[in-house]
């Protein structure tokens, strides 16, 4: 029963955001179709780059952790670590979305959606207004192509 409620809450959340984003002007149909066709490859490329960057970032953070804590303070240093973890999770979700989006399955679109939500959380944690704006544009584009996924 708990899983059923979680699924309904997830669908309710997606439906609420979809209602908001559907109030914005729609892209032309050929633009939506083109975006839906390249989306699997965008997810694959950014997923790979994100995972590689995340792993390299953790290595750098580990090597420089004494200096990071000393010069940035523990609060800022922990924000960087949390942001790195969140970025890695978002990138892994992008990689997991590749097969589903390539086959135009709703499960692939859902993974893209949750990856984007992870990026929104990261932008909020790091107080990145530019990142948040980019994340909202990403959500807009995702809802524009949702109809192609079954």
Describe this structure in words.
This protein is an all-alpha fold and 150 residues long. The chain has one domain. It is 87% helix and 0% strand. The protein has helices at 2-21, 29-72, 74-102, 106-125, 129-145. Helix 2 packs antiparallel against helix 3 (74-102), helix 3 packs antiparallel against helix 4 (106-125) and helix 4 runs antiparallel to helix 5. The two termini are 25 Å apart. 19% of the residues are buried. The mean pLDDT is 87.
Shape: elongated
Task: Tell me how many strands there are.
Answer: 0
Extract low-pLDDT stretches.
Answer: none
Radius of gyration: 17 Å
| Major β-sheet profile | none
First-to-last CA distance: 25 Å
Mean pLDDT: 87
**Content-based structural category:** mainly alpha
Please give the domain count.
1
Beta-strand portion reads under 5%
Give me the strand/helix succession: HHHHH
Considering DSSP H and I runs of 4 or more, what fraction of the residues is helical?
over 70%
The tally of helices reads 5
Key features?
mainly alpha, elongated, 150 residues
Brief summary:
The protein is mainly α. It is built from 5 helices and no strands.
Write the layout of secondary structure elements.
Elements: H1 2-21, H2 29-72, H3 74-102, H4 106-125, H5 129-145
